[in-house]
């Protein structure tokens, strides 16, 4: 791989060990429950998450959609962060296919929604109101620069949910990043949640797939919803084989990605025209701004990095001057150094043109 691709941890390729496991995986028809590799993956993921059962799904988006369609009925309302993946990046699928209404809340710097704000968003029972059914937490919270939510915070939200007879779903696409960053287990981070979805295909490097976990009854119902969405995947053990390696071999090494993210952040902080809040670099995401008065836009910087240096970094949101870089298995410290020096060279040369 000659490109240094920092657009996302979704660009990770399967490891050589995964390719061997894929080639040798015992498989069967998973729609009949007969794929031993899928069954092993579902059981192992559920155990790691402290839940009774698991369900292999095509993607994180499908995992969240299956969870919401299983938990809610049409006209229900769910409470979630305004900057959550489900609200921003899932094509409003829960609204489109489930008739589910979103009640969105702001998040703090640490990724949390205020408990009091959640409490106030819960609708009292009243003829005119939609019933509040569920709260979603996202861990890590990508909209807060990948902040990990602590077990203590999640336990407080879970208690609030129980008190009001609400369900709790955790979008844990990067839950293992949170576990590693907080020196705890994924299981501890989802205690008290009714369901959790995790991605195998981000930092954990599997080519495809997510796992949704919850109670036996929930997963039984979720399996029917997955089937209705076209998610019954037959000899899916080919994919699950890589997922098993993701869970067994790839979790602890996420620490390396957090270290390279920090290295990148510290390097960027030394470049004129780049501003970065280093306290916000907590997992594998590095958000930084191209200063308002810098003679280059994020789009131009992105283009020059690609054209002149074979480095891919995206503007995060075309309406702002923010860019996002995500570290992963294929990004080593030397790639970080090359990236920092490339950005420095571009910023310094464009600065000189203006001065000259
Ligand atoms: C990536 C991601 C998803 C969706 O996963 P896909 O596999 O891309 O559909 C859901 N939630 C969060 C927080 C994510 O980062």
Write the layout of secondary structure elements.
Elements: E1 4-5, H1 16-24, H2 36-48, E2 53-57, H3 60-71, E3 77-81, H4 85-89, H5 93-98, E4 101-105, H6 115-121, E5 132-138, H7 151-163, E6 167-172, H8 175-181, H9 186-189, E7 195-199, E8 210-214, H10 216-228, H11 237-249, H12 254-268, E9 274-275, E10 285-290, H13 298-309, E11 311-312, E12 314-315, E13 322-326, H14 333-355
Parallel strand pairs: 1-11, 3-4, 3-5, 5-6, 6-7
Antiparallel strand pairs: 2-8, 7-8, 9-10, 10-13, 12-13
Residue share in helix: 40-55%
Uncertain runs are none
Let me know the largest β-sheet. 7 strands, mixed
Number of helices: 14
Calculate the terminal CA-CA distance, rounded to whole Å. 37 Å
Number of strands: 13
General form: globular
Task: Let me know the average pLDDT.
Answer: 96
The distinct bound ligands, ions and cofactors come out as: pyridoxal-5'-phosphate
Order of helices and strands: EHHEHEHHEHEHEHHEEHHHEEHEEEH
Query: Within the largest sheet, what's the order of strands?
Result: 2-8-7-6-5-3-4
Strand content: 15-25%
- Rg measurement, Å: 21 Å
**What structural class do helix, strand and pairing data support?**
alpha/beta
Structure explained in plain terms:
- This protein is of the alpha/beta class.
- The chain contains 14 helices and 13 strands.
- It has helices at 16-24, 36-48, 60-71, 85-89, 93-98, 115-121, 151-163, 175-181, 186-189, 216-228, 237-249, 254-268, 298-309, 333-355, and strands at residues 4-5, 53-57, 77-81, 101-105, 132-138, 167-172, 195-199, 210-214, 274-275, 285-290, 311-312, 314-315, 322-326.
- The strands form 3 sheets. Strands 2-8-7-6-5-3-4 form a 7-stranded mixed beta sheet, with helices on both faces.
- A hairpin with a 6-residue loop joins β12 (314-315) and β13.
- α13 crosses α14.
- The relative contact order is 0.16.
- The site of pyridoxal-5'-phosphate (PLP) has 12 residues, from α3.
């Amino acid at each position: 791989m000659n490109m240094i691709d920092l657009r996302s941890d979704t660009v990770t390729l399967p490891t050589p060990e995964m390719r061997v496991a894929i080639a040798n995986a015992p498989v069967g028809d998973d729609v009949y429950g007969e794929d031993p590799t899928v069954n092993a993956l579902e059981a192992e993921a559920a155990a790691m998450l402290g839940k009774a059962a698991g369900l292999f799904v095509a993607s994180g988006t499908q995992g969240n959609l299956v969870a919401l369609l299983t938990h809610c009925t049409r006209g229900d309302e769910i409470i979630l962060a305004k900057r959550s993946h489900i609200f921003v990046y899932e094509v409003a699928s829960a609204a489109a296919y489930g008739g589910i209404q979103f009640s969105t809340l702001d998040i703090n710097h640490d990724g949390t929604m205020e408990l009091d704000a959640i409490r106030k968003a819960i609708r009292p029972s009243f003829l005119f109101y939609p019933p509040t059914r569920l709260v979603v937490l996202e861990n890590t919270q990508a909209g807060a620069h990948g902040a990990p939510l602590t077990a203590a915070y999640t336990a407080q939200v879970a208690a609030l949910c129980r008190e009001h007879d609400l369900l709790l779903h955790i979008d844990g696409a990067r839950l293992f990043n949170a576990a590693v960053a907080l020196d705890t287990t994924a299981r501890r981070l989802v205690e008290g949640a009714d369901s959790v979805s995790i991605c195998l295909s981000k930092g954990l490097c599997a080519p495809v797939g997510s796992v949704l976990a919850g109670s036996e009854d929930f997963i039984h119902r979720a399996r029917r919803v997955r089937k209705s969405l076209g998610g019954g995947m037959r000899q899916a053990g080919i994919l699950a084989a890589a997922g098993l390696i993701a869970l067994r071999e790839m979790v602890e090494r996420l620490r390396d990605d957090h270290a390279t993210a920090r290295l990148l952040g510290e390097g960027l902080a030394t470049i004129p025209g780049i501003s970065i809040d280093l306290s916000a670099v907590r997992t594998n995401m590095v958000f930084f701004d191209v200063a308002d008065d810098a003679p280059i836009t994020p789009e131009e910087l992105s283009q020059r990095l690609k054209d002149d240096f074979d480095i891919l970094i995206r503007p995060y949101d075309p309406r702002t001057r923010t860019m996002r870089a995500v570290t992963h298995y294929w990004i080593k410290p030397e790639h970080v150094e090359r990236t920092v020096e490339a950005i420095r060279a571009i910023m310094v040369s464009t600065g000189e043109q203006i001065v000259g």
